[in-house]
């Protein structure tokens, strides 16, 4: 769990512990504080899920185990870098290309993913193929390399369309991890309150 998610889980746990302790046998003000904080946390988690709806690849991890693979391009469209806005001008600096890809790695089955990149570095819109760099442990982390290996570029150009529809890969959502971590923190805090009296 990353540090931001850990802090969010700690705050969520404190709010849930205040809510349960206030409802159980604590003072009324603790119930009201816990209730309001829990509602606020749920609203913030819902808003973050709506702002970042998922489906697009995440950037590569520094120091991650990365590999190159050819990919078949199913479609390309110009989108705004901010997922809440629409791209009105295809030449705007705020737009990016969204490539709908089937990545064909050697070590695992093919999978579909959407990758955002500000430039079409490999002329993928016309060729229909490209080479991507992906994380072997977290396949939802995909990037378009500026200079892919030439052997893989030749292999990608010789590829035809994949035989079967590949499974779409998406990054795991953050909200369930924060809520589960918060429930664990709340359980520990409530046990300490019960034990210490």
User: Any idea what the shape is?
Assistant: elongated
- Helix percent band: 40-55%
Structurally, the number of domains stands at: 2
Report how far apart the termini are: 32 Å
Strand content: 15-25%
Reported for the largest beta sheet, the result is: 6 strands, mixed
Succession of helices and strands: HHEEEHEEHEH
Q: Residue ranges: pLDDT <50 for 5 or more in a row?
A: none
Structural class by secondary-structure content: alpha+beta
Number of helices: 5
Radius of gyration (CA) equals 23 Å
Overall pLDDT metric? 82
How would you describe what is shown here?
- The protein is of the alpha+beta class and 197 residues long.
- It has two domains: 3-54 and 174-196, no CATH class; 66-168.
- The chain is built from five helices and six strands, in the order ααβββαββαβα.
- It has helices at residues 3-24, 28-51, 124-127, 150-157, 175-196, and strands at residues 66-80, 95-103, 111-117, 129-135, 142-143, 167-168.
- A six-stranded mixed beta sheet has the order 5-4-1-2-3-6.
- The mean pLDDT is 82.
List the SSEs and their pairings.
Elements lengths: L2 H22 L3 H24 L14 E15 L14 E9 L7 E7 L6 H4 L1 E7 L6 E2 L6 H8 L9 E2 L6 H22 L1
Parallel strand pairs: 3-6
Antiparallel strand pairs: 1-2, 1-4, 2-3, 4-5
Helix pairs in contact: 1-2, 1-5
Which features would summarize this protein structure in a list?
197 residues, alpha+beta, six-stranded mixed β-sheet, 5 helices, 6 strands, membrane, PH domain-containing protein, transmembrane
How would you concisely characterize the structure shown here?
The protein is built from five helices and six strands; from the N terminus they run H-H-E-E-E-H-E-E-H-E-H. It has 197 residues and is an alpha+beta fold. A six-stranded mixed beta sheet has the order 5-4-1-2-3-6.
């Amino acid at each position: 769990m990353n540090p931001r998610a850990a802090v969010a889980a700690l705050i969520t746990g404190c709010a849930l512990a205040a809510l349960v302790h206030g409802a159980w046998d604590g003072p009324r003000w603790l119930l009201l504080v816990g209730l309001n904080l829990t509602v606020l946390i749920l609203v913030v988690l819902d808003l973050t899920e709506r702002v970042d709806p998922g489906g697009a690849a995440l950037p590569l991890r520094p120091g991650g185990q990365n590999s190159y693979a050819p990919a078949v391009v199913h479609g390309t469209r110009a989108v705004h870098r901010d997922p809440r806005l629409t791209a009105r001008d295809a030449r705007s600096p705020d737009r990016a290309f969204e490539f709908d890809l089937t990545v064909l790695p050697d070590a695992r089955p093919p999978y579909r993913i959407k990758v955002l990149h500000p430039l079409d570095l490999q002329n993928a819109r016309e060729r229909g193929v490209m080479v991507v760099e992906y994380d072997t442990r977290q396949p939802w982390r995909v990037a378009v390399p500026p200079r892919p290996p030439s052997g893989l570029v030749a292999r990608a150009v010789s590829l035809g369309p994949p035989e079967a529809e590949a499974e779409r890969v998406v990054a795991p959502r953050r909200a369930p991890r924060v809520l589960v971590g918060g429930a664990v923190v709340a359980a520990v805090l409530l046990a300490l309150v019960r034990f210490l009296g």
